Amino acid sequence: xxxxxxxxxxxxxxxxxxxxxxxxxxxxxxxxxxxxxxxxxxxxxxxxxxxxxxxxxxxxxxxxxxxxxxxxxxxxxxxxxxxxxxxxxxxxxxxxxxxxxxxxxxxxxxxxxxxxxxxxxxxxxxxxxxxxxxxxxxxxxxxxxxxxxxxxxxxxxxxxxxxxxxxxxxxxxxxxxxxxxxxxxxxxxxxxxxxxxxxxxxxxxxxxxxxxxxxxxxxxxxxxxxxxxxxxxxxxxxxxxxxxxxxxxxxxxxxxxxxxxxxxxxxxxxxxxxxxxxxxxxxxxxxxxxxxxxxxxxxxxxxxxxxxxxxxxxxxxxxxxxxxxxxxxxxxxx
Length: 334
Description:
By secondary structure, the chain is α/β, with parallel strands linked by helices. The chain has helices spanning 29-40, 56-66, 85-88, 122-130, 158-161, 174-185, 231-243, 293-304, 325-328; strands at 8-14, 45-50, 73-77, 91-94, 100-106, 134-140, 147-148, 153-157, 189-193, 210-214, 217-222, 253-258, 263-265, 268-270, 278-280, 283-288, 309-314, 330-333. 24% of the residues lie in helices and 27% in strands. Strands 3-2-1-18 form a 4-stranded mixed beta sheet. Strands 4-5-6 form a 3-stranded mixed beta sheet, sandwiched between helices. The protein has a 3-stranded mixed beta sheet with strand order 7-8-9, sandwiched between helices. The chain has one domain: L-arginine/glycine Amidinotransferase, Chain A, CATH 3.75.10.
């Protein structure tokens, strides 16, 4: 499985339609998606899943009004339940001669929701449409629960993959999962962090807390307020990272990434984190929250990605769906 910063042929997204994901606040959501697609279409192809052929004209009008380059957008009709493609989509692979294939992991609505069966069919649909080899794994795994450096190392959390709460694979041990990562993703060195952040209904996805930004460099979300529920869990993850090494035995370089002030809607704590960024060709899209730390986070990532433009995307509305930019996107390698 290649690192996200390696060249992409395209980014896959699914147009939003499940209003219950953003209760009482769905109106602005298509415009947030349109801005994400506008930015991506400047640097690579966007492959956009929509619910029906009849929906395409309205989506095209929205993208056109947002100023997106429609020449870089391809539409694919495939009904979905929710369409968070980081988790329900395929995880793409690259072979030794550069050939692209994909793995099809089971998706079960984060072991929490009942409507997941259409989402679970998305990887097979994409494999058919692209004519790519597909490996069904028979194991439940969401793309947001792992992060890779493309060299054989994989980051994940015990809370998500080993906890009895929202257990994805209660019959599998830590060793079983590590063997599956080696077999299906070529990741033979697994780095286990502890847990995720407050408000995350996936129960511990790693893409809100720590991300590879280079072969041996990891950004780690850090909460500076000792009274915040995220303070101790993120401190524990940082402690673990400092003792970890990459697949070649080199110590990791750890870069701290601030957290935004807590984001609430209707009394609900939402999983706002700058770590949920997406690395595209010549571009990094970063969730922002109208927060004083937005600039600090953008500056940290701009220093790490000197070869890319780092752009903030306002996600204060989007995060009510309990996910941000990384959760929506699935890179297809070149």
